[in-house]
Amino acid sequence: xxxxxxxxxxxxxxxxxxxxxxxxxxxxxxxxxxxxxxxxxxxxxxxxxxxxxxxxxxxxxxxxxxxxxxxxxxxxxxxxxxxxxxxxxxxxxxxxxxxxxxxxxxxxxxxxxxxxxxxxxxxxxxxxxxxxxxxxxxxxxxxxxxxxxxxxxxxxxxxxxxxxxxxxxxxxxxxxxxxxxxxxxxxxxxxxxxxxxxxxxxxxxxxxxxxxxxxxxxxxxxxxxxxxxxxxxxxxxxxxxxxxxx
Length: 246
Prior knowledge:
Helix content: over 70%
Shape: globular
Order of helices and strands: HHHHHHHHHHH
Number of helices: 11
Mean pLDDT: 88
Low-confidence stretches: none
Number of domains: 1
Radius of gyration: 18 Å
């Protein structure tokens, strides 16, 4: 737990917490404003609101937010002398990579909680939707957090290699655009192979958009989670190997 605690201390006063709160709220605000401006009610209640907030957030804003978080977590290591201090701390490369990825995963989970909480508050207070949202949304949110892991691993590796703050964010934006294109093609193997596309696929579970059939099957959930975990494990090993050789 040492590397994780150290990373939490490093970010306790960073802008990461602003990203965790502000970007999900912005996504919900955008979905709310566009719905109100259209003058049309939410045709299917909670599922329609979910589609306009959580799914919209997962197509591009979420990937950009994750890349910003990764850049913030690694930014301190690019300051003069800090990289040498990190490598002389006695913590192995794999432990360093896993520690940063664990903190990023915690931030991603917190961001998902803010997004879902804001969506529920908006549906209840603004649109007066009856009752709580469907319980399946909790499962989808858990799958989304798992699907964030390979995206975080990719962006963490890029932020580790590139001192530039903006370059990894630009790469994430391009990855998100490619991911949307792959989702439109509906080719499952390609979607599973590209982390940014896999995250978008996870956010669409049970919505019936793009390649989703509108159901949340066990096979689909396990497929997304399994692909995400395998990709994350591979990316951690690659990142540790690269850190050893820098």
